[in-house]
Write a structure and sequence with these properties.
This protein is an all-alpha fold. The protein has one domain. The protein is 92% helix and 0% strand. The protein has 2 helices and no strands. Helix 1 runs antiparallel to helix 2.
Length: 62
């Protein structure tokens, strides 16, 4: 599994937690930072998924 998939998932989880904490405490800055980190994590996870798919495709070609 590509490293980006793992790291992206971590960022997505951390971001979601920050977002929820920000909402609960009324801390808009933390909420926005959480949303941003969550979305960066989603993108990073997709990059890792694409890398895994490319690696798998290359294995089947040889």
């Amino acid at each position: 599994m590509d490293h980006n998939r793992v790291e992206g998932t971590k960022h997505e989880i951390k971001g979601t937690a920050k977002e929820v904490l920000g909402k609960v405490t009324g801390n808009k800055a933390k909420e926005v930072a959480g949303k941003l980190e969550k979305n960066v994590g989603k993108i990073q996870k997709e990059v890792g998924k694409a890398a895994d798919e490319q690696r798998d495709a290359n294995k089947h070609q040889h």
